[in-house]
Amino acid sequence: MAEANYPQDLLYHPEHDWARIDPAGEGGSDFIATLGITWYAQDALGEVVFFDPPAVGTTLVKDEPYAEVESVKAVSDVLAPLSGEIVEVNGDLAGDPGAINEDPYGEGWLVKIRIAEPAEREALLDADAYSATLGG
Amino acid sequence: MTPPVTELPLQRERARTIFEKGASGRRAFMCPELDVPQVNGEALPERFRRKEPPRLPEVSEPEIVRHYVGLSKRNFDLDSGFYPLGSCTMKHNPRLHERVAALPGHARLHPLQDPARAQGALELMWNLQAALAEIAGLPHVSLQPSAGSHGELAGVLLTRAYHEAKGEHRHKVLTPDTSHGTNPATVTMAGLEVVKVATNPDGGVDLEDLRAKTDSDVACLMLTNPNTLGLFDQNIQEIAAIVHEVGATLYYDGANLNAVMGLSRPGDMGFDIVHFNLHKSFTQPHGGGGPGSGPIAVSDRIAPFLPRPLVVRDDDGAFDLDFGRAGAESKSIGRLRGFQGNYGCFVRSYAYICSLGGDGLRDASETAVLNANYLLARLREKGVAEHLPLAYGELCLHEFVLSGGPMKKTLGLKTLDLAKRLLDFGFHPPTVYFPLLVDEALMVEPTETETKETLDAFADAIAEILREAAEEGPEIARNAPYTTPVRRLDEVGAAKNPVIRQALS
Amino acid sequence: MLEAIGVPSIEALFERQIPEGVRLRRPLGLPDGRSEQDVYAHLRELARKNVSAEDELSFLGAGMYDHYVPALVDMLMERSEFLTPYTPYQPEISQGGLQVMFEYQTAISELTALPVSNASVYEGPSAVAAAGYLAKLHNGGRRFVVSAGLHPHSIETLRTQAHGYGMEVVEVPLRDGVTDPEAWAGAMDAETSAAIFAQPNFYGAVEDAAALSAAAKEASKASFGGDGAGFGRPGEPIVIAQVDPITLGILEPPGECGVDVAVGEGQPLGNRLDFGGPSFGFFAAREEYLRRMPGRIAGETTDVDGRRGFVLTLQTREQHIRREKATSNICTAQALNALGGVVYLTWLGRRGIVELGELLLARTHYARETLSVLEGVEPLHSQPVIREFALRLDADVAEVKRRCAAAGINPGVDIQALTGREEDRGGLLVAITEQRSRADIDRLAEVLGATVAAVGRQGHTARTAESTSAAVPA
């Protein structure tokens, strides 16, 4: 993706991770969020060469690293913006993780979790607040 | 210089591995005759035997020679050209060293030979230790570590042992944000935690930040002086005081020793532990990446923890190896590797030190600093400075760091492109993108063994590349190199789909 | 030049940059520099004070061996283009060195029957420690289980490093010269990060590698449950073997024995003894550990014009980008020594490595049989051996060696001096290379036989005298 882009419908963690909450599960036991890294993160990394997702069933803890994204230049921790249990991982990235660069909010999604603490959403930023942290 | 349109001969020649050459039945090795009885099946039971031989090549000696000599021609090297790599100290490797290292008395000496029958080797190591101790200003030396980063690991483990012996468990190691990547990795391997210390506008350690972060949980501060910017920290004595006040140790990364031999000594600056890179200041050839050697020198308080074995000398002057097993419980951190260390490197470095002597070593550092400052001055003169300014300071010691940030904005030329274009001019580029502190960094260390003519030619080449970008646009450099055996390689592809061995049917 | 810089003197460069308080104001206390001729004479004199394999009939081994190194290896290792370049960070001008690494990786992969090899690490024992670190990063276990058959230097190096990152090292004893199978299985638990043994082991014995690997995995499965550490990876111990590369022509390779990571000392492959270094360590593993491998790796790729080429790859794992999370702090490959290794393997070739293995097997077997019938000499164990074996002498080993030296023979390594183990008293480790002919072995038998008898008698007499008298000098 050539230009900086921070969709309005997502919530953002200051360490450059996003979460898309599926409103359908609100209040129920299957409250799902899709997670990934932001445009800023993939741009800083350069072309991603490897992503190895954790196993389904793994527990994520908010603010803790749960996976790594590797480019030729660097390896970066991916932090959990919310706590929860992994219910699905993006297996397509195994063969070619390029989607993380090309479509970080769409095909480049990393994992889906069942949200453990919905209240943790309060600590996340909206698109404008997150963009502001990136500076000029 | 106009890029060529046709392929050069070396480019036309396609890469084929030795595994793709040869033919069934060809051989080079002639096995000695079986002069003892054949063994029966019991000697090595069938279930332990290999079923299929390893698929090594089947080639004759002439094929082997032609193949590897051919490969050698696709390699740039120090004997052929200039290598101004910052912090690598690519100085000339005297050929005498290969001759003495090949003497059978050194080369064919088994590491477990009885010390009484290896007195020459032990004397050499003892003398080398003494010389390194004098250069460092710290009396106790171990030659065991195999490389600079290995010496660093030793240093951090020594620090841990020192604190543990006092009943303290400290967790933090401070390193400046300009430090070489090896330092943080080493600290983690030693079970400690890295805390970064800021750099001040003059390029030295930010004293306020250091004071704020130095507490009784700090085990060590790891520094190099001069630092990776080629600048000597004016506050080094104060830094040492701050660190020692909380009982922490001060560790010297010897990567930049070439600037100060005979002029200033890490021991006198207040360092407790110093590591040397014999493959930098002491001319052990780099060999395309190794071998190296990373001896360490330490102060009295750290000495009890040195790795074993140590070279010792008894009252009648005979040399021996002390493994620390006899008598009282040893406080040594133990072994870091097999045997005594890279003796072949000791022979070469010792020969170098014998050749130069004390005055010669000081002379080497003086000339290294002179050459770096001269090259810096030439690069400023040519109008290069506005595109590639010096990142910090005015003068430098043995190396300096330029920033390619302005060049990127004004000419659309990145440091990477400049480096690749330099290959077409027959120079190895300087170190690029390090230290991380400087935007589009270019770190240059000419060393003392380069002539003024070479430095002039290099400065001219840089100026030419900038002129070319300014007048003809950055595309030429962006697609460089043109004249090397292969051109820019797909590193992303190599990382995405790693192919790290020849496939065989 | 000073004019261009704008300073009046070289001294000014230092005056302005180094505080007076840390300036060295006296010459370095080192001897004066000397001419090349004088330095050569001095180094030659030192060489003469050493007794090398050139000067005596040597049966020393225990990790480094006096194999024949063909002249073409020396010639290639001395070429400027291989001797003097830096690490290949600019791949366009380093295709020679990078391709050598790629070929070396291929050769090691073939030898070990493991798909992934790096471009070499420093040497054997630290390669074992590096493998341990890989296991720790992979599964976060708390202890290493190691066979007492591992080279003592490997065990010591592992302990030193493991202390750094907080891992326990547990040693499993040998029985009849090989790793005690019950003790081995019994030592495994859910916290075991890696199980490590040597093949052949330090005492020259061929281990049942497949059984050891299987036992390590089985025993831990029984007690293991849940996810270990890291990002959801299971915590089965990683099986690590330190192997002798020269035996891999005839011995079942680690990849076929359930071993996950194979490491070893590369000196026997085309490298000099050099009083212990430099040499290289090799490091090979299963595919899944590719991104946890320490050190350098060369990978194949293409250039902009489609030419085949090679680059250093997966460098993100290394120290200079990952920093705190590096797989190791190793930033050297022993590139020059690995060149010697791959050229040597190419020189041996597919048939040669098998023939050499068979020759060593036959000669070693002959040597053990011949020496075992000497009075006061018995084998320490009767396991299969390939290139080295252990004897027990009924005499003081140091004294026996001193007397053999006078006859121009070095009969082998004093085992107890190396291991420090009480049960190794009287132990002698005898190594056979293709340079030790039958005649040499027969000569060894002659001299050793006579020496052991003489020293043994003396010792026996002394012991008898001691038992009947208060103080008799030994």
Strand ordering within the main sheet of chain A: 1-2-3-9-8-5
- Can you count the beta strands of chain A? 9
How does the major sheet of chain B shape up?
7 strands, mixed
Helical stretch tally of chain A? 3
Proper CATH architecture of the largest domain in chain B: 3-Layer(aba) Sandwich
Shape of chain A: globular
Count of beta strands of chain B: 12
The radius of gyration of chain A is 14 Å
Give the topology, please.
The complex is a heterotrimer of chains A (136), B (505) and C (474).
Chain A: E1 11-13, E2 17-21, E3 32-37, H1 39-45, E4 48-51, E5 59-60, E6 65-71, E7 75-79, E8 84-89, H2 99-102, E9 111-115, H3 127-133
Antiparallel strand pairs in A: 1-2, 2-3, 3-9, 4-6, 5-8, 6-7, 8-9
Chain B: H1 9-12, H2 61-72, H3 96-101, H4 104-107, H5 119-136, E1 140-142, H6 148-165, E2 172-176, H7 182-189, E3 193-197, H8 207-213, E4 218-223, H9 236-245, E5 249-253, H10 266-269, E6 273-275, E7 296-298, E8 310-313, E9 319-322, H11 343-384, E10 400-403, H12 405-411, H13 415-424, E11 431-432, E12 441-444, H14 452-472, H15 475-478, H16 491-496
Parallel strand pairs in B: 2-3, 2-4, 4-5, 5-6
Antiparallel strand pairs in B: 1-7, 6-7, 8-9, 10-12, 11-12
Helix pairs in contact in B: 5-11, 6-7, 11-14
Chain C: H1 2-5, H2 10-15, H3 36-48, E1 57-58, H4 71-77, H5 80-83, H6 95-112, E2 116-117, H7 124-139, E3 143-147, H8 152-164, E4 168-172, E5 174-175, E6 178-179, H9 181-187, E7 192-199, H10 209-223, E8 238-243, E9 261-265, E10 281-285, E11 298-302, E12 308-312, H11 319-322, H12 335-372, E13 377-379, E14 388-393, H13 397-406, E15 409-410, E16 413-414, H14 415-419, E17 427-431, H15 438-468
Parallel strand pairs in C: 1-15, 3-4, 3-7, 7-8, 8-9
Antiparallel strand pairs in C: 2-10, 5-6, 9-10, 11-12, 13-14, 14-17, 16-17
Helix pairs in contact in C: 4-12, 6-12, 7-8, 9-10, 12-15, 13-15
